[in-house]
Amino acid sequence: MNEYNTQKERLVLKEYGRNVQMLIDYLSTIEDKEERNMSARAMVELMKQINPSIKEGNEDNQKLWDDLIIMSDFKIDIDSPFPRPKKELLYKKPERLGYKDKSIIYKHYGLNIQLLVDKAVRMEDKEEQEAAIIYVGRLMKSFSNLWNKENLDDDTIAKNIRELSRGVVEIDIEKVKSNNLFEHLVKDKGRRPTQQQQQQHKGGGKQRPRRKRN
Fold it and tell me: Of 18, 43, 69, 132, whose CA is between 20 and 30 Å from 100?
């Protein structure tokens, strides 16, 4: 009668396979400790061949010895060259990470926008604060265009910034509009004049005719 995997004992470390598990179970039954230690060293070499990704480094060798002890359910008595792993630490549940309970006024802008506004609120230098808020406004406008395929008007962005800052930050909306401060990229209206054009401009826009040599 064939024995199905569902009827066999659960593998502790599946990457080594059932045969290695059975060999380690046998190692635990060897009465002579010297023979058991010698067999354990041979088993570590076999485990290393099964996992070619494991290198000859000290940390990798320790992992192999730890895995051998873990697969024996910490019952095998061998002289490992490394400190034995502790069973209580292996099965200990990790502590739950604490998340900041931070309310987001506008979820579609995300937490990072809220954090940038909070940072701007704490700025004492008004010029730096204004520059930071303008940067945030540009981000909000670009995000809106990315998500909704439409541009928010400057008044709405200014209103959102004021609410994100809980009324602390005020920005001159007329200054924003007249200078297109919330535009992501402000294109230059004209090309930069070349060096030759600059020289011509200084000379009155005309070049002196060259004299012909005889």
Answer: 132
> Based on the domain organization, do 72 and 131 belong to the same domain?
no
Contact indicator for 62, 82 with CB cutoff of 8 Å = yes
Most distant CA pair in the chain, distance: 116
pLDDT at 147: 67
Which residue range(s) make up the domain with 171? 111-179
Q: What is the DSSP letter of 184?
A: S
Tokens of 33: 């400790």
Q: Where are the alpha helices (DSSP H) in 13-94?
A: 17-27, 33-50, 58-71, 87-90
Long-range contacts of 173-179 (CB under 8 A, 24+ apart): 176/134, 176/137
Cα distances (Å, whole numbers) of residue 189 to 12, 94, 186, 197 = 70, 59, 9, 17
For 98, the token pair is 């604490």
CB 78 within 8 A of CB 40: yes
The amino acid occupying position 76 is I
Does some domain include residue 186? no
- Give tens-digit pLDDT for 130-176: 999 999 988 888 877 776 666 678 898 899 899 888 888 888 888 88
Residue 160 lies in a domain: yes
Domain count, the chain: 2
* Rounded to 5°, angle at Cα 42 from 18 and 79: 105
